[in-house]
Amino acid sequence: MKIFVTRNLPGRALSRLSEAHEVDVWEYETPPTKDQIIERAKECAGIITLLSDDISRNLIAALPELKVISQYAVGYNNIDITEATRRGIIVTNTPGVLTEATADLTWALILSVARRIAEADRYVREGAWRVAWGPELLLGMDIFGATLGIIGMGRIGYAVARRTTGFDMQVLYYSRSDTYLTRAAEKNLGAIKMSLEQLLAEADIVSIHVPLTDQTRNMIAGKELSLMKQTAILINTSRGAVVNENDLYEFLRERRIYGAGLDVFQQEPTPLDNHLLELDNVVATPHIGSATVSTRNRMAQIVVDNILQALDNKKPKHLVNHEVYHQS
Ligand code: DGY
Fold first, then answer.
1. What is the C-alpha separation between 160 and 243, in angstroms, rounded?
2. Strand partners, 46
3. What digits encode the pLDDT tens for the residues 269-285?
4. Burial of 286 (0-12, 13-18, 19+ CB in 10 A)
5. What's 164's DSSP letter?
């Protein structure tokens, strides 16, 4: 069967796919447009997509042979799942393997913002370090003993929370569900569940780990930011649209919160004139939560496993739309 892959993937996973199917890989670094995806995938039974591909209702409708969309990410907010399901198209993702790498990056941002690492690096490189040692030079915030508020205690939220033990931190969390992870967080880490408002008011560091849905879009805007401590830090490694960037900019500029670490943006790549990038109390990274060699290789293996299973009429292990198997 024919498969279109919207970007080359690391490792050797795609060679394994080519042994079983006819694989066409988009050859450029710039993502294909909607029309280019339609042109290349119109006869395909499967496509491998990235979070930067807009797999909309119209695009799905223009791919009559499509049986499976295998997403190279855990998040799938770029895919119209309802439309895919309605048309009997299987959608899969790559959960689990990127949890630890994303939690590590979250902690890199926490440490960078609290201890002003990016700013200090610029200070040294720009030749501003002219006095040997200064009692008031680049003072930051304590992490040891601080309170961490996790919004969304899923796999990644829990992995971020687990890393607090060495820092002797209190963990607070906000979650709309009660799962084995929320119970484990309470039992193993002494995490305390509370309302979003209470968490924002009490945490020194607030870290966001929710998927982007209609409910979470713009979840952290002016009203929520106004509840945070003036010394608090906001970290977002989930999806940019969960946070209102204009409101965040105002709060950071006026120092009504201490700083922010952002791996994700409303628009990606974020334009250079995004005002957030003018602020010294912002550390910005280009959506690299899962960007380690082994994680990205494992994600590639999983997207290939998922698509092979689906095209072989087996239920893929990492299925997003379970309903697709229960409709007539
Ligand atoms: C995901 O998987 O959803 C991340 O944002 C990229 O790895």
1. 19
2. 3, 68
3. 999 999 999 999 999 99
4. exposed
5. T
Structure tokens at 2: 């024919």
**Is the predicted pLDDT of residue 328 greater than 70, yes or no?**
no
> Has residue 327 got a pLDDT over 80?
no
Confidence band, pLDDT 50/70/90 cuts, at residue 125: very high
Ligand 1 proximity of 244 Cβ (cutoff 6 Å): no
Distance 303 CA to ligand 1 centre (A): 13
Q: Does 299 have pLDDT greater than 80? A: yes
Residue 284 in tokens: 């910005």
**pLDDT tens-digit profile of 179-237?**
999 999 999 999 999 999 999 999 999 999 999 999 999 999 999 999 999 999 999 99
- pLDDT of residue 149 exceeding 90: yes
Domains assigned to the chain: 2-97+293-325 (3.40.50.720), 99-284 (3.40.50.720)
User: In this structure, are strands 90-92 and 68-71 parallel, antiparallel, or unpaired?
Assistant: parallel
* Ligand 1 atom at shortest distance from the alpha carbon of 237: 5
Q: Whose CA is nearest to atom 4 of ligand 1?
A: 73
Q: Is 15 exposed, middle or buried (0-12, 13-18, 19+ CB in 10 A)?
A: exposed
**Nearest in space to 113 (alpha carbons), one of 279, 267, 271:** 279
pTM to 2 decimals? Answer: 0.96
Instruction: Kindly list the strands in the beta sheet with 90-92, ordered across the sheet, starting from the edge strand earlier in the chain.
Output: 22-25, 2-5, 46-49, 68-71, 90-92
How much of the chain is helix, strand and coil, in % rounded to 5? 40, 15, 45
Q: Say if ligand 1 is within 6 A of residue 74 CB.
A: yes
Backbone angles phi, psi at 265, to 5 degrees: -140, 160
E strand residue ranges, the chain:
2-5, 22-25, 46-49, 68-71, 90-92, 147-151, 170-174, 192-193, 205-208, 233-236, 259-262, 282-284
254 is catalytic: no
